[in-house]
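Sequence only, no structure available. Ideas?
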Amino acid sequence: MSVPDFVLELRRHVGTTPLWLTGTTAVIRDSGSTHVLLVRRADNGWWTPVTGIVDPGEHPADAAVRESREEADVDIRVDRLASVGVTRMVTYANGDRAQYLDHTFACTYLGGEPHPADGENTDVRWFPVDDLPELRPHMRARIEAGLADEERTRLPTATESAGAVDAQPAAPAD
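Reply:
I predicted one. Tokens follow.
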């Protein structure tokens, strides 16, 4: 996984102490909202929407656009903020710990040929919204929020917040 330079600099000073970071999730739909674009993460094999860390001073919606280009080589339009939630504490293989304030956006695909563009993912595919692959529950909730035809932003509370999560779970069976 690519770690932003500002996080590497922080880690030089604080070691593996938990960091509070801002994250973004782009739930990318085709123009008919019948398919959603997912990436298969290189670090754990799970399918997820495009996700990433928001850089200092960057708007989370701009980060969703940037991450979509960097990870899947696609151009998107951010349509609305679908949900805001707090993740569980993540412990990475190297011992680093972080917790994220995630901003999930409903996005529309505009162009580009989807493919794993930066090494963070091994596959990029369109899935019918009614036939998604196995997903971790918090990612399924983000996708559901991004696909919902709602005007209000979802604000989940305890679901993702309780307990710790290992960032290196076993890959789902194919």
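The helical segments are 5-14, 60-72, 137-147, 158-161.
Hope that gets you unstuck.
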